TrEMBL record:
Subcellular location: Membrane
One MF annotation (Gene Ontology) recorded for this entry: glucuronosyltransferase activity
Organism of derivation: Canna indica
Positions of transmembrane segments: 26-56
A single Gene Ontology CC term: membrane
Annotated protein name in UniProt: Beta-glucuronosyltransferase GlcAT14A-like
InterPro entries on file: GLCAT14A/B/C, Glyco_trans_14
Topology in membrane: Single-pass type II membrane protein
Main localization category: membrane
Length: 389
């Protein structure tokens, strides 16, 4: 299969009716013919060489089977700030699978040169992306103020774009550049294949404690909402009372949300999502409360929420090489090999430079431990003993 210069990772010009222009403005357009030529040259010297397997027909996006009777798929929103492009690329290599969809976001303070560098390295590092066209990079970036609500705004916008880009994924996953997986995608897909697809995983509690005075009641204005290159916020001199129109929940900012819940948050077919968004626009660390409060105040979703964020990620850069070699079995600058990789595994070649059936997985030993954790969480959820309380 020839390389495809018109892949979304390069052109990002989407010809979809109704919403194409909106997504196109937000994505990262690259129109330089010379730049594409350089990328094709880099691809040629990166080991992506011609062979009989290369010339033969390979599976394409149309060969991936979706739906309740097949393996699930995840939509990953991976974000970072200035200087995080290399970490984002490494994280992408660690969580890549042709079934999934990926949206990468470097904050507005990142220079364009770093954003272009990320696009180039993604294009070269994972040959399958050129065939499956399942990775995109945000062009019109948000500020993502750490303490404000611009990060929440960016997450909701990313969710909206992912809904429009791909109608086949089942769960929305947020990851920062500081995260790193402790489980392969084959293991993750295998375990989630037994999970009801309307379930969301959100670590939450209504026991606010000290957070009521430090998180719920203070009023702030996030400058990043109005000026993309600003990451400061301003705090009002007076606090507001704890709301009575809805019950406030807080918890981990990392979430795994069902597609149906994401559609509810983005489309907002009742006033709950809009009412809470108005409140959390001026809240400290709004990502630690918005999804939690929406899902637990909605009669349609509060009973299909598991009280856990299922964190299977590490945050210590010093041990990432050990995780690669001992847990993920990932070679340097290459994707984690899974059942979809059909190339021969040698130290000088990438087994994932050739691919076969993306509708099967090959779970390893860690899937058993993760499966036990999932079973215990689902058993607890069925008892309705911990959700939205």
């Amino acid at each position: 299969m020839p390389l495809r210069p018109t892949s979304p990772i390069l052109s990002l010009t989407l010809a979809r009716r109704g919403w194409g222009m909106t997504v196109e403005k937000w994505m990262f357009p690259l129109v330089s013919v010379s730049f594409i030529t350089v990328l094709l040259f880099l691809s040629a010297i990166s080991g992506f060489t011609a062979s009989s397997a290369f010339l033969a027909r390979r599976p394409t996006p149309t060969d991936i089977r979706r739906g309740p009777a097949h393996l699930p798929a995840f939509a990953y929103y991976i974000y970072g700030g200035r200087g995080d492009s290399r970490r984002i690329l490494r994280l992408l290599l660690a969580v890549y699978h042709p079934r999934n969809r990926y949206l990468l976001h470097l904050s507005a303070d990142t220079p364009d040169s770093e954003r272009v560098d990320l696009v180039a390295r993604v294009w070269v590092s994972i040959p399958a992306i050129r065939a499956f066209e399942n990775v995109d990079v945000v062009g019109k970036a948000s500020a993502m103020t750490p303490m404000g609500s611009s990060g929440l705004a960016a997450t909701l916008q990313a969710a909206s774009v992912l809904l429009r880009l791909d109608n086949g994924w089942d769960w929305f996953v947020t990851l920062s550049a500081a995260d790193y997986p402790l489980i392969t995608q084959d293991d993750l897909l295998y375990v989630f294949s037994t999970v009801p697809r309307n379930l969301s995983f959100v670590d939450h509690t209504s026991d606010l404690g000290w957070k009521e005075s430090q998180r719920v009641q203070p009023i702030i204005v996030d400058a990043g909402i109005y000026l993309a290159n600003r990451k400061s916020f301003f705090k009002a001199s007076e606090n507001r009372v704890t709301p009575e129109s809805f019950k406030f929940f807080t918890g981990s900012p990392w979430v795994i949300l069902s597609r149906s819940f994401i559609e509810y948050c983005v489309l907002g077919w009742d006033n709950l999502t809009r009412t809470l968004l108005l409140y959390f626009t001026n809240a400290i660390l709004s990502e630690e409360g918005y999804f939690h409060s929406v899902i637990c105040n909605s009669p349609d979703f509060q009973n299909i929420t598991v009280n856990s964020d299922l964190r299977q990620f590490h945050h210590n850069d010093a041990v990432l090489d050990k995780i690669d070699s001992m847990v993920l079995k990932r070679q340097r600058h290459k994707a984690v090999p899974g059942a979809w990789c059909s190339g021969k595994k040698r130290w000088w070649t990438d087994p994932c430079s050739e691919w076969g059936n993306a509708n099967i997985v090959r779970p390893k030993s860690r899937s058993e431990k993760f499966g036990k954790l999932m079973k215990s969480l689902l058993d607890e959820w069925k008892l309705k003993s911990s959700s939205c309380r």
